[in-house]
């Protein structure tokens, strides 16, 4: 390889490496929880489809409003799985399918891109994945020695890009409420 070719490759590679490094450090700045804070965890992020900021705000508001409408059964808090971010939790009755120890975390939202993690009934999870709206979280497959850190039907639901997709995501959240807590507030 000639010196000129080597210098050209370096000139192209260095800015790319610096860009990846900066983005990786931004990923680490999100803090622990969810996808492992490692380079392989970084590579599993959703990068190409994000919600516009106003749609992220609208989705957060809709999830909050569900909890506000049913304060005896639902609450908003910080995710016990991701350790940050808005979470919708079943507060009463006791969760039928606890997701984080005894806590019934239905979902937690990612303010950075509009995506969310949530747990569904296995058949609902299969349907949502088949329709291309979500993917199974890699930690649901099992970790070291096959131990699962999250339920098998714990999904990464892609960020809604338009209003109609936002409505669909809210309906998926309602399905999660039914699976985690036996709460059926459809049509409200």
UniProtKB/TrEMBL annotation:
InterPro entries (alphabetical): Luciferase (IPR048273), Luciferase_dom (IPR040841)
UniProt signal peptide: 1-19
Keyword field contains DNA damage: no
Domain Luciferase: 104-175
Domain of life: Eukaryota
Keywords: Signal
UniProt entry tagged with the keyword Thylakoid: no
Transmembrane segments: none
Family annotation (PANTHER family): AMINO ACID PERMEASE_ SLC12A DOMAIN-CONTAINING PROTEIN
Protein name: Luciferase domain-containing protein
